[in-house]
Amino acid sequence: MITSSNDELIEAAQTVLHPHTVGNRLFGDVASTLVTDAGNLYSGVCIDTGSGTGFCAEHAAIGAMVTAREYRIVKIVAVWRNEEGALHVLPPCGRCREFIRQIDPANLDTEVVLGRHVSAGLRELLPANEWPSPLD
Questions:
Q1: What total of structural domains would you count in the chain?
Q2: Can you say how many angstroms the Cα of residue 17 is from the centroid of all Cα atoms in its chain?
Q3: pTM score, two decimals?
Q4: If DSSP codes are grouped into helix, strand and coil, which group holds residue 62?
């Protein structure tokens, strides 16, 4: 299995980080890069639109991966740069955590980068992820 270091993924994500404002909406201010079990990197950016029709950077990166007919995510990161220019690693929101899980059941073992030297398994970030047993 081929993986990239946290720093390599952070660097790859920040290379596609290009915020752009359209009206009162901001596109591309969060970027995500993931590495698959085949060792391929896919990146994407967020798009903020009205009426909740936009999507997170992780969704865009995963969409690129699925377009290439890959489904297993080994490692994923999302980054954002504040107004002062400081780069931050962002944890995936709950919607993204569930989206990662639903793309492939093995993605519960995805390593989520939370900083240069900090990661957590998606399984840890998405507790109670098993379908419940019937009550009776």
A1: 1
A2: 13
A3: 0.92
A4: helix
